[in-house]
Amino acid sequence: MKDDPTADLFNRINKYVATNSLPNATWENTVLLNQDTIEQIKSLKLTNGIDLQVHGSGNLIQSLLRHGLIDQMNIWIYPLVIGKGKRIFGDGTVPANFKLVKNLVSTTGVIIASYEQNGKVPIGSFAS
């Protein structure tokens, strides 16, 4: 879209794409993470820059969880059921402890919950 502030920003910033299939990127400012993705992400986290975000990759989320590389998760829950889908937290998910740091319910019923790492997984009951 021409003169769209969101598109303009997105085109200007670096985009890191974890891929096993793309040999090169054609979108400007795109960096492919197609070698040792976990080590590449660890290096990126050591630099000063904007937050790294993951959109739409359950497999990458699982790898990042397994290596303790997620500082905050923003989970959007839509009031919509459209059939079978891939589970973000399916078989093989590594246990992790997060605390709710922010939540919002949109006017259309979308729940946006932000979680941050919260130490070791507690053992006990769900009672408060």
Strand content: 15-25%
- Pick out the low-confidence regions: none
Return Rg in Å: 17 Å
Number of domains: 2
How would a textbook summarize the main sheet?
3 strands, antiparallel
State the shape: globular
Structural category: alpha+beta
End-to-end separation in angstroms reads 49 Å
Query: What sequence of helices (H) and strands (E) makes up the elements?
Result: HEEHHEEE
Helix content: 10-25%
Number of helices: 3
Q: Would you count the extended β strands for me? A: 5
Summed over residues and divided by their number, the pLDDT gives a mean of 85
Write out the strand line-up for the largest beta sheet, numbering strands in chain order. 3-5-4
Description:
With 128 residues, this protein is an alpha+beta fold. Helices cover 20% and strands 23% of the residues. Strands 3-5-4 form a three-stranded antiparallel sheet, with no helix packed on it. The chain has a two-stranded parallel ribbon with strand order 1-2. Strand 4 and strand 5 form a beta hairpin. The longest helix has 9 residues.
